[in-house]
Amino acid sequence: MSDPVCPLCGRPIPDGVPQSLHHLIPKLKGGKGGPTVLLHDICHREIHAALTEAELAREYSTPEALKTHPRLAKFIAWVQKRPPGFRSRVPGKRRKR
Which PANTHER family did the record assign (predicted)? Predict the structure, then answer.
């Protein structure tokens, strides 16, 4: 069986690599029980560092939409050059909910 692929960066997510489920519509904005995607933990943290819960619910509720955000597009171009297990601290604080 092949490893799942991160829908944000397109890299595989092998066993043992930090990963997390991202609610496409934030739970605080009515997405509890809604669709989720499996992401690298670093990709997930970058999404929440770049966007507020309101922005995620309103404009960025699909992986395709997330890829269009300027900060995330720059991050994706950078992280795609890293191995799947790459870990790094996300710069900046988490955005307000």
Answer: HNH DOMAIN-CONTAINING PROTEIN, TUDOR DOMAIN-CONTAINING PROTEIN
Residues 6+ apart with CB under 8 A from 82: 11
Q: Report the distance separating Cα 36 and Cα 52, nearest Å.
A: 17
The two tokens of residue 38 are 């499996």
* Torsion sign (Cα): 82, 87, 93, 94: positive
Q: What would the two tokens of residue 73 be?
A: 């597009």
User: Which whole number is the average pLDDT over 52-66?
Assistant: 96
Provide the percentage of residues in the chain whose pLDDT is more than 70.
91
Q: Could you state, in order of their start, the residue ranges of all structural domains in the chain?
A: 1-97
